[in-house]
């Protein structure tokens, strides 16, 4: 699935991204499986996620933006050191480009994960009964296993998504308020 979405990505990066983002495998286990160190895994995941984000939007960047992309990748997995967290937060407060990178990366990751998840079926109020010509044994369908469930999001990623949602709602409310004030001003000027 990752190879289809990102055909130009190297095998190591594809495997790392698939294991961490889709299978929910812990980073130390992925590093061991690939036979690389944590730092090398971090760099591979950052490269893979940058390519994944590029499928949604191309963004220019500086040298610090390149470093920030790696830190954003580490933060997604909960592997960001406290000192790097502070540096990243300062950079994001001053760099709309990297904020956009993080937003687009989350969108692209969500799309990739959604493609790996089984399609939801419509809820049925009454379970269907098998046709009379079929035996009960042939009418039984296999139940999905817990291993097939998509990986759960980390609390930081969920908090980030909720933060963005709150920010969008706040922006919409501000736009409605500005429209109401402009309308009131226009009606007041006409009186």
Q: Which structural category do the helix and sheet elements fall into?
A: mainly alpha
How far apart the termini lie comes to 63 Å
Main sheet characteristics? none
- Discrete helix count: 9
Radius of gyration: 23 Å
Compressed to H and E, one letter per element, the order equals: HHHHHHHHH
Mean pLDDT: 78
Helix-strand layout with pairing:
Blueprint: H1 2-5, H2 11-22, H3 27-34, H4 38-54, H5 63-76, H6 82-94, H7 96-116, H8 136-139, H9 155-190
Short description:
With 191 residues, the protein is mainly α. It contains nine helices and no strands. The radius of gyration is 23 Å and the shape is elongated.
Explain this structure:
With 191 residues, this protein is mainly alpha-helical. It has a domain at 1-117. It has helices at residues 2-5, 11-22, 27-34, 38-54, 63-76, 82-94, 96-116, 136-139, 155-190. Helix 5 (63-76) packs parallel to helix 7 and helix 6 (82-94) crosses helix 7 (96-116). The chain is elongated, with a radius of gyration of 23 Å.
Quickly list its features.
191 residues, mainly alpha
